[in-house]
Amino acid sequence: MNNCKAIEISENIYWVGAVDWSMRNFHGYETGRGTTYNAYLILDEKITLIDTAKIDFKDELIARISSVIDPVQIEVIISSHVEPDHSGALKEIAELAPNAEIFTTNPNGIKGLTARYGKLNYKAVNAGDKISIGKRTLQFVPTPMLHWPDSMVTYCPEEKILFSNDAFGEHLATSLRFDDENDLATIFFEAKKYYANILMPFGKQAQTALKALGNLEMRMIATGHGVIWRKNIDKIVDCYKKWSAGEVEERAVIVFDSMWHSTEILAQTITEAFAKRKISAAYYDIKKNALSDIMTDIFTSKYLAVGSPTINNQMMPTIAGFLCYLKGLRPVNHKGFAFGSYGWGGQSIGYVEDELKLAGIEIILEKIRVANVPTAQQLNEITEKILALDL
């Protein structure tokens, strides 16, 4: 990767990160469009590097830095987040730039980096701390639990650039660095998917961070993953305000697994019943759809119906895995119910309902249990129950 070149995003400020075209899974979150590991080099009196990259991409990172300066010249390294997709090459960069000071949050950044990379030349920063790197100033805003305890963003007031790390990002591999150079529908979908599958549990922390950043003038948001925002800053910030507030739409998502089509027939009937109420409904066979895509749809949909047949006195393992994933993300302001078919026991439907409750879903309809193959009368009764719901 020695032919990799830095890309200037503003005068004497370069993107020096790496593009991971092949990544398809990030901690169980399916990333069908890959990702980027964004790092930024600022040429000033003190040459500064903001973040590194996943260790697998250290050669690409170093090649891009070396296309602009000798890495030994780096005097300041900002580590926004301990997670190895951002800090993975930190030790290698520190070895190439032995005089560099590494700025990270106090105390969690210090603890996390030391645990991973040993003792390096760390400098702890707190909320409101600033450093001068010459013509430019860098000020630090900790954003704890967005989405790790050590997370922070860095703002350069002279450039009006926010180096936002995980905030406002998306898993998207692209050779074009800016939002306006890429398809906006794709970018906003991936940004929503990123929030839904990573940041959803931290809505309150996101709102706190938005307030802290509210008075900053931004002409560019340089993210840790995906594109750099320069034309649609207000739009992505507005999205984060809505998402962090838990705003949901009059929309339903139906998720199910089925063995011999009976639960599938129930899912179809429920989908059509919502449609009769003029409520848009999406229908997901768990075997044929990625959890992260389903969760992106659930994220802003008010209603959720989950169905499973009974196998070995339990719900289907696919649905159990989905419900575990759902509980971890802790959606808010959602309503729903459980449904399913069975041969003799029928325990699965009750278990699904229990898990929905544990996920914070308000149950609005008694669980739907149908033995064997649903009859036309049973399907009509299900439809009437949904039509009669006081939503």
Task: Please provide a written account of the structure.
This protein has 2 domains: 7-244, 4-Layer Sandwich (Metallo-beta-lactamase, Chain A), CATH 3.60.15; 250-388, 3-Layer(aba) Sandwich (Rossmann fold), CATH 3.40.50.360. Strand 8 (47-50), helix 1 and strand 9 (74-78) form a beta-alpha-beta unit. It is α/β, with parallel strands linked by helices. 47% of the residues are buried. 34% of the residues lie in helices and 26% in strands. The protein has helices spanning 58-66, 84-87, 90-96, 108-117, 184-199, 203-213, 233-244, 262-276, 291-299, 317-329, 347-358, 376-388; strands spanning 7-10, 13-15, 18-20, 25-26, 29-30, 35-37, 40-42, 47-50, 74-78, 101-105, 122-125, 130-132, 137-142, 152-156, 161-165, 220-223, 249-256, 280-285, 301-307, 310-311, 314-315, 335-342, 362-363, 368-371. The longest helix is centred in the middle third of the chain and has 16 residues, at 184-199. Helix 5 runs parallel beside helix 7, helix 8 (262-276) packs parallel to helix 12 and helix 10 packs parallel to helix 11 (347-358).
